[in-house]
Specification:
With 655 residues, the chain is an alpha+beta fold. It is 55% helix and 13% strand. The strands form 4 sheets. Strands 3, 4, 5, 7 and 8 form a 5-stranded antiparallel β-sheet that branches. It has a 4-stranded mixed β-sheet with strand order 6-14-11-12. A hairpin with a 7-residue loop joins strand 3 and strand 4. The chain is elongated.
């Protein structure tokens, strides 16, 4: 009625307006002749065509006015929609605004890597079908596959016993739910980017006179408790009603009604602190105290052992310097022994120079990447449940630091007299990426066979390959070219003899493997306690947020690795064994072997992981991580030993 009255007013208003001036030329063009008036002024005639033209003009004006009114309504509607989208992007909502609730994944609680899509279980789907949410690279790598849900949870609107859907579960559906309840399946959702979890069902054990009976119950009602502050969502919790369950133990079909309820409450927690809840509950208070005590205990123990070792080493070196700095006459009468005796062989380049330089280059790259990741963590980039941020940062930083590996490897290879620098660069590229690619191909095939969300889509694999092909590989080659054309030279304090000296027969504990065991034990003891919390976060459902402590532990790990490698290098040179290059790398990187050995203890004693997929994922990816630790700490061990060897041979007179 309002629209009709508006059109009538527009029509009446336009009918009293004079005709548009452009109608006269159209009349003349049609041949209507004007008639003279008494005063001699020519006046135009008004034939039927002119009347029709006036009617058409008035009708067009009415249409234009009505179109303008409709256009204003559309603009106003689009402005409201844009305002709502803008508020949603800033996590601000008006009353009764729709807040997005996405279902992410389901899976066994004790197998964090074995996750499946939410609708792999026969839950209620939206009427128009589930719509997948676009995700970034890190979210896909973490196995997130978010899609829309039929839950309607508008902002600040309470709901009581709202029916979601009614459906009849077939025998196949009941089989899926029974397996989910038996394996302690959980579901994960995100409401305004806040994570929520709940269990699919429960198992009750009934004690019968004969044998105990297990009954499987499916939760059919969920309750959302949502807290808000002003126009923002602050907190959400989901709970299931243990009294509203359906027995799915027996039968081939069951009629089920899924429902939900929502209760809103106001809170004073500001929006910028809403993620502190997940940091606060990541570890229980008593566990946090034990964590701090263990870290302080490890730090004190390691510092005392390191100081004790450094004191002994400095005293022994002081005695050696006094002995080797005697008069030339006294030195000629006595035969040279110890590490001075092999001064002509200690700077002889190692075997497999290309592989050695590739190890040092890749270890330097991983060390630089780790430092950059810690920098991002310390400035607060990786807040709790910032989905995929850590994995995305690791991939990008590894690609950007690949030039460091190429430069260091090619520069050291050139200083050692190598001429096949192309092979050296290719070996540097493939040294870490090659084993990672092989392991990823195997594990991704396993995930595809299980139809898990841990399997990366083909598009994501193509994106990673493009990053490697367009960033990692070219930067490594450019770094290799820069290192090949460098001008720095290897300047040894002592001249290397033409033929290597024979190494005397040594006891068994001087061999490489016993030395690696001794070298890796002390650094591993420094990080042993911290490893549990890291494993509980990576291979569990804990949230790790104390990156400052982790950074301190990493620094202690680097320092202890350097000290223990220096000590073992000195003991090796003291028994006239001059092949210290590879030995320093193996002793420094032996901590990675200890970490991998800890994986077996954690899997069988501290976790409840089961199944082939979870087992293969755990040991497969941990082997790659420990291999990366081996390269990183091996680089640290070699560089520390190199500085030490150069220092002691500069302090004596070498012929």
């Amino acid at each position: 009625a309002i629209a009709l009255r508006t059109r009538a007013r527009c029509a009446s208003r336009d009918a009293h307006r004079p005709s548009p001036p452009r109608a006269l030329p159209r009349e003349r063009a049609r041949g209507s002749e004007p008639e003279p008036e008494p005063n001699g002024v020519m006046a135009p005639r008004r034939p039927r065509a002119a009347v029709a033209l006036v009617v058409v003009a008035v009708f067009g004006t009415v249409l234009r006015g009505c179109d303008a009114a409709e256009t204003r309504t559309e603009i106003r509607a689009s402005e409201d929609g844009a305002l709502r989208r803008l508020l949603a992007s800033s996590h601000s909502y008006l009353v009764r605004d729709d807040v997005p609730l996405y279902a992410n994944k389901v899976g066994p609680f004790h197998n964090p890597s074995e996750t499946y899509q939410y609708y792999d279980l026969p839950f209620c789907e939206p009427a128009d079908g589930a719509v997948s949410k676009r995700e970034d690279l890190g979210e896909v790598l973490e196995g997130d596959r978010m899609s829309s849900t039929p839950y309607q949870v508008p902002f600040r609107v309470d709901r009581e016993n709202e029916s979601l859907c009614e459906r009849t579960l077939s025998a196949n559906d009941l089989k899926k739910f029974r397996r989910a309840v038996k394996d302690d399946y959980y579901f994960q959702m995100y409401y305004d980017d806040l994570p929520i979890w709940g269990f699919v069902g429960k198992i009750e054990k009934i004690l019968n006179p004969g044998a105990p009976e297990l009954r499987y119950y499916l939760f059919t009602h969920v309750h959302f408790d949502v807290a808000y502050n002003g126009d923002k969502v602050i907190e959400i919790n989901v709970s299931t009603d243990p009294l509203r369950t359906v027995d799915i133990t027996d039968g081939d079909s069951v009629r089920v009604e899924f429902s939900f309820s929502v209760k809103w409450k106001e809170t004073r927690i500001p929006f910028n602190r809403r993620m502190e809840k997940y940091s606060r509950y990541s570890f229980l208070p008593q566990h946090l105290e034990i964590h701090w005590f263990s870290i302080i205990n490890s730090c004190v123990t390691v510092l005392l052992l390191t100081g004790f070792l450094a004191t002994i080493l400095m005293r022994v070196l002081k005695n050696d310097f006094i002995k080797y700095s005697r008069d030339e006459d006294v030195a000629e009468e006595s035969e040279e022994t110890g590490w001075k005796y092999i001064h002509g062989d200690v700077f002889r380049f190692p075997r497999a120079k290309s592989l050695f330089c590739a190890v040092i280059g890749t270890g330097t790259q991983l060390f630089a990447m780790t430092l950059f990741v810690f920098m991002l963590a310390l400035v607060g980039v990786f807040y709790p449940y910032n989905r995929g941020a850590l994995l995305t940062s690791v991939i990008v930083l590894y690609a950007l630091t690949s030039g460091v590996a190429g430069y260091v490897a090619a520069n050291n290879y050139r200083q050692m007299g190598g001429d096949k620098w192309v092979r050296n660069v290719l070996l540097t590229v493939a040294l870490f990426c090659g084993p990672l690619c092989v392991m990823f191909s195997f594990l991704n095939t396993v995930a595809i066979a299980y139809r898990s969300t841990a399997a990366l889509p083909f598009g994501t694999i193509c994106v990673i390959f493009v990053i490697w092909a367009l960033v990692t590989f070219p930067l490594t080659v450019l770094g290799g070219i820069a290192g090949k054309n460098g001008r720095s030279e290897f300047k040894a304090p002592c001249r290397t003899t033409k033929y290597p000296r024979e190494i005397p027969l040594l006891p068994w504990y001087r061999a490489a493997i016993p030395q690696m065991c001794m070298a890796g034990f002390l650094p591993f003891s420094a990080i042993y306690i911290e490893l549990y919390y890291i494993f509980a976060s990576v291979w569990g459902h804990k949230v790790y947020t104390i990156y400052s402590i982790l950074f301190i532990v990493f620094i202690i790990l680097v320092v202890v690795t350097a000290f223990i490698t220096i000590a073992l290098t000195y003991f090796q040179l003291a028994v006239e064994d001059h092949q210290w290059w590879w030995r320093s790398v193996l002793c420094g990187g032996s901590t990675g072997v200890f970490i991998y050995a800890y994986c077996f203890y954690y899997y069988y004693a501290r976790s409840d992981m089961t199944g082939f997929m979870q087992t293969s994922f755990f040991f497969g990816y941990m082997s790659v991580i420990c291999y990366g630790f081996f390269l990183l700490l091996g680089n640290i061990g070699f560089r520390a030993s190199s500085l030490f060897v150069r220092h002691i041979y500069k302090a004596i007179k070498c012929e």
